[in-house]
Amino acid sequence: MRAPKLVFFALLLMVTVVLAQSQQPPARQTGVLRLRVKVNDSARLRGLARKRFFLIPGTIEQNRALIDAIERQTVLSRDCYYQRIGASAALISWLRESECESVYCRGVEQEFVSGPKAVPEFATAFAAGQKEFGNDETARQWLTTNLAPNVRDGFYRTQQTVLQTLLKQAGTEVHSVMTNRDGTAYFTDLGPGTYVLSNLIPTEVGQTFVTWNCEVQIKPWDLATEKPYLVSNRKDRNVKCLGTEKPKPACPID
Q: Model-level pTM greater than 0.70?
């Protein structure tokens, strides 16, 4: 009698396991989008570094109101912002050299604190740091703490105000990534479907503003092992998302 009971309990256990597995939700299917952003500013073709891109669920038409808002916005260039606040030509040149939106995007080397390449704002902040910290190296490393807020990151904060307004209009399911130094970025854990790839705020490339708004199809289990999704401001057969360029206007006179 014992053997039939063991068989019965074994079968009961198998049925229980099968039922439990059948009641579990199916595994979520997700995909990956690998961006490669390359721009030509009339000087050279280069990867677009440290720029943020967004994936907005839905088609172009479903996001028409948002895209119209993106295209209608009045954009102030980095140079115009810093000219408006009275920044030195040396600081504007230093920011432009690495396409920086704030002084935090690169280290301030000694040559920009003193000597022929010195940036006046950096030199003044460095001198204040020497008195505060009593050490030249510490003063240089903490130089940004002695810069005026509008010089330090005012342009970045201005852009963030515009960006948050657009993101609020886009909704809560927006994904974002920032490109690395060679212009590569990965969107991960994406549900399958249609998205709009956008930079939301036009990107400065040379003497133009570039805006990207392109539909992207994400497939389940797409691991981005094929060619990257190429984004550019120059037409090419391999480019999947071509930006719209507008010349940068002259700086407004206050």
A: yes
